[in-house]
Design brief:
The two termini are 34 Å apart. This protein has a single domain, classed as P-loop containing nucleotide triphosphate hydrolases (Rossmann fold). It contains 7 helices and 10 strands. By secondary structure, it is an alpha/beta fold. The chain has a 6-stranded mixed beta sheet with strand order 6-7-8-3-9-10.
């Protein structure tokens, strides 16, 4: 599949400040940019604000001040509905618990983002029938053909994880976010998963923001940043 062309940078943060109501300052990010096809590893301990930062990037939370731009659009200037549409079109997400829909089969789970975003569906259809692309992604991620008709509960943890990656990259979103997706894996399974993830991201053309507390993974990425004291600093 030919990756879609996205403007550069995919993600830009400027003078971003955030705190929870009645809480101390949590995020204090002067500047951050993520370029198209770049892979950034973001490290930080529990409570450092990693999940909050991802919520700002996804437009679920809005910054107290400053700008969060996704593909050139300032999220604070968009309505809630427009943020939802941008999220559906341009963000792929691999959650720590995968969040596959248990009553849908694997093929239906992979195709799910295309039902929520007409933009993403049109991009997928430009490459051919989406069903075929979903099956191709599953094959590229090392899953047997008969997995497509199974429900998530019939899969191993590793298989569910690969389905989550296929769902995240279908339709060429501009930004892929991974939130601690390897925390439940042993070293061998973790390394194999990272190989598959990076290959899928390179094929799709997405930028990758990978969040983890485990610094041993950082060598697989083009940049390694640490969320420290609310700021993003080089490792």
């Amino acid at each position: 599949m030919n990756p879609d062309t996205h403007q550069d940078p995919v993600l830009q943060l400027s003078d971003v400040r955030y705190r929870w109501p009645d809480g101390p300052p949590l995020l204090n990010i002067d500047t951050f940019e993520l370029a198209s096809s770049e892979r950034v590893f973001l490290q930080g301990p529990s409570g450092s604000g990693k999940s909050t930062l991802l919520g700002l990037v996804a437009g679920i939370h809005l910054a107290e001040s400053g700008r969060v731009n996704v593909l050139g659009q300032d999220l604070s200037a968009l309505s809630a509905g427009a943020r939802d549409r941008l999220r559906g079109a341009e963000l792929g997400y691999v959650f720590q618990q995968f969040n596959l829909v248990p009553y849908l089969n694997v093929l239906e789970n992979v195709l799910l983002p295309l039902t929520f975003s007409a933009v993403r569906r049109r991009r997928a259809e430009a490459d051919g029938p989406p069903d075929g692309q979903a099956r191709e992604l599953l094959d590229d991620l090392g899953l047997p053909a008969d997995v497509a008709a199974r429900t998530p509960g019939a899969l191993s943890v590793g298989q569910q994880q690969r389905v989550a990656v296929a769902r995240a990259v279908i339709g060429h979103p501009g930004l892929l976010i991974c939130d601690e997706p390897t925390s439940a894996l042993d070293a061998g399974a973790r390394d194999a998963f990272l190989d598959l993830l990076i290959r899928a991201v390179e094929s799709s053309g997405a930028a990758l923001l990978f969040v983890s507390h485990d610094p041993s993974l950082a060598s697989r990425f083009t940049r390694h940043l640490v969320l420290e004291g609310g700021a993003l600093v080089p490792a």
